[in-house]
């Protein structure tokens, strides 16, 4: 079969790598891909937003299965556009993707179906939001309605901070006019935050093995939030059996049946952002795609045939699939550019990739400049390794990180150490 992966980051490199591993797959295209995918796939110079171009390409090339990495094409309706042409595209429909595309739509969905989440109010006028903040007592979370590349949420300690967030979203339109038309203001939830992934075929959902990620840029969870500095899987003890039971019954099953009930069944991977509170797990948000770098660790450990699993999502036959996982631990460490997540330089030459042993390096933000691999993004390389336990996986991943060199290279040194750090406190 011929497969097309949409996207060009570490997540998509890992998906393409796993798809190419299947004996059923003859050819993998990646749009737009990166220098890493270019080594074993055919990169196609199409942007992820270019839905018409992607439909045309998939039609001409008779692509059997298209796999979408990022949220933007999903929210734009890529799955619907492909389906109209009789093309198989793995991911949620446009209607189901509003769970990520609009925080207002997400919160209203949660309320309609009585799914545990933070208490909230919605505002479409800045003045009303300001008045509410003035009256409310204590910290609040302010969320921009539309996609904001992970920067639209402020967990405000004071009213002044909350009001500043409203101003940025609704008055200065920092995330665009449309995205900032409404805000969600909600209570601050306390507890441990986890990400949970489930494959869905419309009616059935299967939890994937647990992954824990590390969002802050520096060791010890210090510094600003990033798209993700690293992850590890499995994460034993992360979720208690009782929390898991509640999570499945009150959140996952209710989400799936709620969407079926509303005529927009969910197909693809559902990413649940969960806070494990004293009164049980609550939904912080939904995402309609894999997390990056969580996906990299999952692809390293998945032993089932990936195209078969994704086709089962499309066919509604996930109940017949038993996912098999490598029992070993996978660790992913992201190498980032100096300054990330703020301003960072690009076009910095990268060396040492040839010296990497016992690790899998996925490209995240790299570019080929006349035969020289150079940096092209904040997150540059996703360095992943398997080990018999967490220590062995960490050792292999960090040995590879040390073999790679570029000016200003940064990584966290404590990926996988969070639980130990917690216990020590
Ligand atoms: N109600 C809440 N209480 C406490 N922290 C929150 C709450 N909502 C969001 N957060 C924090 O803010 C982060 C970003 O919010 P999220 O809803 O995941 O939006 P996005 O990922 O789109 O930026 C979360 O990962 C979490 O750490
Ligand atoms: Mg989030």
Structural summary, described in words:
It is a single chain. With 425 residues, this protein is an alpha+beta fold. The protein has four domains: 90 residues, Rossmann fold (3-Layer(aba) Sandwich); 67 residues, 2-Layer Sandwich (Dna Ligase, domain 1); 129 residues, D-amino Acid Aminotransferase, Chain A, domain 1, CATH 3.30.470.20; 96 residues, Alpha-Beta Complex (Glycinamide Ribonucleotide Synthetase, Chain A, domain 4), CATH 3.90.600. Strands 3-2-1-4-5 form a five-stranded parallel beta sheet. A five-stranded antiparallel beta sheet has the order 12-13-16-20-17. It has a four-stranded antiparallel beta sheet with strand order 6-9-7-8, with helices on both faces. Strand 10 and strand 11 form a beta hairpin. Helix 1 runs parallel beside helix 11. The N and C termini lie far apart (52 Å). The site of magnesium ion has 2 residues, from loops.
Q: Residue ranges: pLDDT <50 for 5 or more in a row? A: none
What is the name of the CATH architecture of the largest domain? 2-Layer Sandwich
CATH C-level class of the largest domain: Alpha Beta
Please give the largest β-sheet.
5 strands, parallel
Q: Radius of gyration in whole Å, from Cα?
A: 21 Å
Hetero groups in this structure are: adenosine-5'-diphosphate, magnesium ion
CATH superfamily of the largest domain: ATP-grasp fold, B domain
**What strand order characterises the main sheet?**
3-2-1-4-5
Mean pLDDT: 96
What's the total count of β strands?
20
Envelope shape: globular
CATH fold naming of the largest domain: D-amino Acid Aminotransferase, Chain A, domain 1
Report the oligomer: single chain
Helix content: 25-40%
- Helix-strand makeup class: alpha+beta
Distance between the termini: 52 Å
Strand content: 25-35%
Our count of domains comes out at: 4
Task: Note the total helix count.
Answer: 14
